[in-house]
From TrEMBL:
Any one Gene Ontology BP term: lipopolysaccharide transport
Entry's Gene Ontology cellular component terms: outer membrane-bounded periplasmic space; plasma membrane
PANTHER family, per database record: LIPOPOLYSACCHARIDE EXPORT SYSTEM PROTEIN LPTC
Coiled coil regions in record: none
Top-level taxon of the source organism: Bacteria
Record-linked Pfam families: LptC (PF06835)
The protein, known as: Possible SMC domain N terminal domain
Listed GO MF terms: glycolipid transfer activity
InterPro entries noted in UniProt: LipoPS_assembly_LptC-rel, LPS_export_LptC
């Protein structure tokens, strides 16, 4: 179940779509709020099967407090529960920052796949320590907070500093 709030809504009867501004979307599972998504603009089309958001897209999870995902644009295929994020994609929580230009969140697995190039930074409480990793692809598991890195042609590069 989803709820969409917007101070400005326009329905285009010919295209069977809603154009919305300053959108807040709440996603529920079993009547429990799971995600809150905000954006500057959005469009609900294709008989309410495709939701497209653009401009300052922010996805916050309720299941993992403090997790947030940002992007320039976000497309949600409601039937397949797959979310596509494009442009300045960044996942951040208290432990890590992952950034890329493209990512896909598959709701059925709760895994975010980040596409080439991917930058990963581990946050350490000690100011001058931690590590960075560059990879072709990265897979972040929201449930267990783990990251896997894969590269077909290049090696995964790590930088450790302390």
């Amino acid at each position: 179940m989803i709820s969409i709030k917007s101070p400005h809504s326009n329905y285009d009867k010919e295209r069977n779509s809603f154009d919305l501004k300053e959108t807040t979307i709440n996603l529920f599972k079993d009547n429990n709020l799971e995600y809150i998504i905000n954006s500057d603009n959005s469009k609900l089309s294709n008989n309410n099967k495709i939701l497209e958001l653009d401009g300052n897209v922010l996805v916050k999870t309720i299941i993992q407090e403090g997790d947030k995902l940002t992007a320039n644009s976000f497309t949600w295929n409601i039937q397949s529960s797959e979310y596509l994020l494009i442009g300045n994609v960044k996942f951040e929580n208290s432990l890590v920052t992952l950034s890329s230009n493209k990512a896909i969140l598959k709701k059925n697995t709760n895994i975010i796949e980040f596409f080439n190039p991917v930058k990963y930074k581990f946050k350490d409480n000690i100011k001058d320590s931690g590590y960075e990793i560059n990879s072709e692809n990265a897979y972040y598991n929201i449930d267990n907070k783990s990251v896997n890195f894969k590269s077909k042609e290049a090696r995964v590069r790590s930088k450790i500093y302390y």
